[in-house]
Design a protein that fits this description.
It is a single chain. By secondary structure, this protein is mostly helical. The chain has helices at residues 3-9, 11-26, 46-64, 114-128, 138-143, 148-156, 158-166, 227-238, 255-265, 298-304, 307-315, 330-347, 352-362, 378-388, 392-403, 414-425, 440-444, 448-460, 467-481, 492-510, 518-525, 527-533; strands at 32-38, 69-75, 134-137, 179-181, 191-196, 202-207, 212-216, 223-225, 245-246, 276-277, 280-283, 323-326, 363-364, 367-368. A 3-stranded parallel beta sheet has the order 1-2-3. A 3-stranded antiparallel beta sheet has the order 5-6-7, with no helix packed on it. It has a two-stranded antiparallel ribbon with strand order 4-8. The longest helix has 19 residues, at 46-64. The protein is elongated.
């Protein structure tokens, strides 16, 4: 696809055009900088992922066009620890106010700090998603003195900063300072700056713990700029051209609005191009799988869906459009849609926007993401995993019958994702358990029409032993009983007979009125066992 075509096609290309043009105006010849920021204060959820995926997709498009572009990901691990979440020992309250990088990891963690504990799974998920970025630890930036000149500048300009903030306050504050020290004694930010001298850079502070000291800010590396000043400082320091932000950052007086004024008035930079991104919702995550927190993370999603599918959800919607990620039965419909798109792309029938979103999902500027060599429909794999309870030999038998698959590797990683979905998202009472023995009591009550239908089914099993063949068979039996051809349009009476026939088969095979799609269930059960359970 040419750049001109893709510009018409999707939001990513339009932003890439804008960013390239803006970067050429601001800093011609220099690498283009896109940015994200994440706070590892707790599980980094799928809504937070939009903060990363939006600039990733734009930066990746820019790189595809041959431009030098870097995606910076700031880990805000120097932010304060604000609260002890449910399930963590209340003794962690003693760490409230410390930098996240100085707080011990939750009990039982293998990581050295609270920040690292929550960064690690996100880093692994981003690697699986093919997201290339340059990670920046804000703890390292601040404690190594990287921002020292910017901090001194902000302190010299504190009255100007306060005046900007005052535009959104009802009253002026006395003694405003944009820098917050972490206490030398207790390590918390429960400090108050009591004096500052611009000439000597001497700063005096006291802490609620009773400690106080005077330091030279030109040498002091245990503190940080307050958030509304820190963010625009970084825009200017890094030369950020593109960075999105959540809807909560766009209210009057918010960090985005205030930062847009401070970045130029104080730090001599420009605010990035920054789309506001909308909410990402979740449908149906089971309680049993939410051990990482109350909200699902990218790692949770990647357990049940392949990376290209998760990328596609973010690529196909403009940042301003909200969408939901399915953990319930909707994931089967999502995969049907994804497979249909793949067929359209392969057949040359996809619209430009569809083609662009698909291309961004399956590959990056560095190359294609891993895929499943033989992508059996997800709903079929889920049914097989369910009925076989994950038995590898049985799964391979069914896949061989179904699609001529000779090894489970041909169906992976999609097979593993479907298995994981069954294991973690489908409650035990909804799992399918095939009967061990025929239901003699039910079989004894069957009428002549029902017995005839079962006989016709058994008679046609061998000749129709494929997914399409069994579909035609189970729908065709009631038609033939009504004197219709197999391809005839069913009458209302035939549709009722089909429903009754399906319910009978489910009761005989799995002991209830519903279950996985019947053709998949029949394949999973196997012809010999089907014959046994229907009384043939």
């Amino acid at each position: 696809m040419s750049a001109a075509d893709s510009t018409e096609a999707d939001w990513v290309s339009r932003f890439a055009d804008e960013v390239i043009s803006e970067a050429e105006r601001r800093a011609p010849g220099k690498p283009i900088v896109c940015a994200s920021g994440l706070s590892p204060s707790g599980p980094i959820h799928l809504g937070n992922l939009r903060e990363v995926m939006t600039p990733h997709l734009v930066a990746d498009e820019i790189r595809r066009r041959g431009h030098d572009c870097v995606h910076l990901l700031s880990w805000d691990d120097y932010d304060r620890f604000r609260r002890v979440p449910a399930g963590v020992d209340p003794s962690w309250e003693e760490h409230i106010g410390k930098p996240l990088s100085s707080v011990p990891a939750p009990p039982g963690s293998a990581h050295t700090s609270w920040a690292e504990h929550f960064k690690a799974p996100m880093e692994a998920a981003l690697a699986e998603l093919g997201v290339e970025y340059r990670g920046i630890s804000q703890t390292e930036q601040y404690t190594s003195g990287v921002y020292r000149e910017q901090i001194l500048l902000a302190m010299r300009e504190r009255e100007r900063i306060d005046a900007v903030l005052a535009r959104y306050r009802s009253q002026q504050r006395e003694g405003y300072f944009p820098y917050k020290p972490y206490c030398e004694l207790c390590e918390r930010d429960l400090t108050t700056v009591t004096a500052y001298d611009d000439a000597s850079t001497e700063l005096a502070y006291t802490c609620v713990c009773g400690f106080g000291e005077t330091v030279r800010l030109a040498e002091h590396d245990r503190g940080k700029l307050v958030w509304k000043v820190d963010w625009p400082m970084r825009w200017a320091y890094e030369g950020v051209v593109f960075e999105p932000s959540g809807v909560d950052h766009h209210s009057p007086g918010s960090a985005w609005i205030v930062g847009g004024q401070l970045v130029g008035e104080v730090f001599g930079g420009e605010q990035p191009i920054g789309p506001m991104y909308a909410f990402v919702g979740i449908t149906g995550m089971a309680k049993m799988s939410s051990s990482k927190g109350d909200v699902p993370t990218p790692a949770d999603a990647l357990e049940i869906m392949e990376a290209p599918v998760l990328r596609w959800l973010y690529a196909r919607r403009k940042p301003s459009q909200s969408f939901k990620i399915a953990f319930d039965q909707e994931i089967q419909r999502l995969y049907d849609e994804w497979d249909a798109l793949g067929r359209k792309v392969a057949g040359g029938d996809a619209q430009p926007a569809e083609l662009a979103a698909h291309g961004r999902a399956v590959r990056t500027a560095d190359g294609p993401l891993p895929d499943t060599p033989r992508p059996v429909p997800y709903r079929t794999l889920a049914s097989i995993a369910d009925v076989t309870t994950g038995d590898a030999a049985q799964i391979l038998r069914i896949l061989g019958d179904l699609d001529g698959i000779g090894s489970l590797g041909e169906a992976r990683p999609r097979l593993d994702r479907a298995q994981r979905w069954i294991d973690t998202q489908v409650p035990a009472e909804q799992r399918t358990r095939v009967r061990e023995e025929p239901d003699g009591e039910l079989l004894d009550t069957l009428g002549e029409t029902e017995r005839e239908a079962l006989a016709m089914l058994v008679e046609g099993l061998d000749a129709h032993w494929s997914l399409d063949g069994l579909t035609a068979l189970v729908y065709g039996v009631p038609k033939r009983q009504a004197g219709l051809e197999a391809d005839a349009k069913p009458t209302p009476e035939v549709k009722a007979a089909q429903r009754a026939f399906f319910a009978l088969l489910y009761r005989l095979l799995v002991g209830r009125d519903t279950g996985p799609r019947l053709p998949t269930l029949l394949l999973a059960v196997g012809a010999d066992r089907v014959r046994k359970l229907v009384g043939a």
